[in-house]
Amino acid sequence: MKTAEEIRRLKNALPFWLSLGMIPLAIAGGWFGGWTVALLPVYGWLLVTILDAITGLEEDNPDTLIPETDLFWYRLITMIWFPIQFLTVFGMIWWVTHTDHLNMTEILVLMFGMGVISGTVGIVYSHELLHQKNRLERWLGDLLLGMVLYSHFRSEHLLVHHRHVGTPRDPVTARYNEGFHRYFYRVLRDCPPSAWKAEAQMLARRGLPLWHRRNPFWRYAALQGAFLLLAAAIGGWMGLGLFVFQAFVAVWQLELTNYIEHYGLTRRHLGDGKYEHVLPRHSWNAAHKASNWLLINLQRHSDHHYKPDRRFPLLQTYSEDEAPQLPYGYPAMTTLAMIPPLWRRVMNPKVRQWRRKYYPDIEDWKPYNTGTNPPPRHV
């Protein structure tokens, strides 16, 4: 077990600053053009996957009682990321709309890389920040989500996903045999109204109308509108289009991650709209070291669902006996998910093995596969 003395050392926190390596690659792509515009996707997926193979697994757990004061260097990277991402994305929009040495293909690949930054890093960091009680951190999380035009994710994630994961009420629990492309369309369609409904219920319980200022959707609209206006002011219609494009790429990466985190894993329906409690078995985990550095331990996903506000340096890993394990880290698995036949060939046998292990008595899996079990009674 890692002690507080080990955790607080700067050298142990620095691997989680791996995300900063993306910034000079973005600058190089904008300055030199050519093949350098592809460096960001290569870094985010290929290089990290190679590093996973080299560095292996990290299966040690930290002491969960380590105080926040010992986590300064870990928290710092998540708190400074918004200004870094803001300057990088909007600086790049200004650059490509005010210079003429890049052709349109190079610009689009470069802005795809901006989406890799704001999706692979920005949304993952916002996820960490939104789960904290600190008001500044939660605002930084909102700002990061506003930059990818996906602010409703906060409401959907906190009020729906964590309560109803593994049930038909959770849109982002990927169903068995559901290909990613079909899943992606479904979550884009279902998540915004689901988030709105959850917030409406929260307001109703407080006796407040939908248009009350405490409805966070007003804040979401204001932040997203401000970022859109800024992009247009900096780069005109082209700048606006490029900003929307990087936001779409970021959301695509978020939903790829959501897809693999719970694919085919469902909670037992106990009857009458009741479901078993969330357990470690209801999330896919990956102990691959390098991708956990880049994704600040997001792959220790079972423990995140057990203790949602536990800061990322203290998240626990689980053995294969306790929770299902992915064969590769998230960067490699998200690439696999883009090819549904290959994904099903790798993951469907693992889901069936998981079912035999934990639910050998369930004979009819069709309602779980199709999401047609009764929704949870308390929504």
Automatic annotation (TrEMBL):
Q: Which InterPro entries match?
A: AlkB/XylM, FA_desaturase_dom
Show the stretches that span the lipid bilayer: 12-32, 38-55, 76-95, 107-125, 220-249
A Pfam family of this chain: FA_desaturase
The annotated topology with respect to the bilayer is: Multi-pass membrane protein
Location comes to: Cell inner membrane
For the Fatty acid desaturase domain, which residue ranges apply?
A: 109-335
> What is this protein's name?
Alkane 1-monooxygenase
